[in-house]
């Protein structure tokens, strides 16, 4: 569920990134995923064979460095990834805390893919993913934070923001590399919010980035 009123629960934060075959989150193939528990080395990542079985475009290889050969020799099936990722998440969700999922451009992309994944698990794999909705969950998009707090920035893409905050960009556009950078970027953005007395609790962050 989404936070509706001010919670007094501590947070457990997950940093998530999907690398995909294109721009439409409702139709793209996931070709790589990474997720980690913030502040730990506990993570999951996998290369994924395209669900559509279509060959990824050369442009995607140029951006990510992931080749069709990588996917077909090292990638797991989409069915296996869906199940492994779901199990990984559910084993770490905390019923006593607000489980926060952090992505960059998440509301327009990664969160849509995550929710689509849960729906496809039910529709196509006959796996009940409804357990997820019984936990206290919040979705935080660092792109929205940056657009509100860095109003004079010429760009809000993750690599540019990392450069501005002095965060080394390693393995850009690879899922685990982006997750590790985003973890640091999220801390920097929260620090900026704190500096401006905007608050850093889950409720305050969600209220701050909520569309008006």
Tell me what you see in this structure.
The structure is a single chain. It is built from 8 helices and 5 strands, in the order βββαααβαβαααα. With 212 residues, it is α/β, with parallel strands linked by helices. The chain has a single domain (11-209), classed as 2-Layer Sandwich (Nucleotidyltransferase, domain 5), CATH 3.30.420.10. Strands 3-2-1-4-5 form a 5-stranded mixed β-sheet, with helices on both faces. α3 crosses α4 and α5 packs parallel to α7 (175-195). The longest helix has 21 residues, at 175-195. It is globular and about 50 Å long. The model is unreliable at 1-7 (pLDDT under 50).
Briefly summarize what is shown.
The protein is α/β, with parallel strands linked by helices and 212 residues long.
List the helices and strands and how they pair.
Blueprint (H helix, E strand, L loop, with lengths): L10 E10 L9 E8 L5 E5 L10 H7 L3 H7 L3 H15 L5 E6 L6 H16 L11 E5 H8 L8 H7 L10 H21 L6 H8 L3
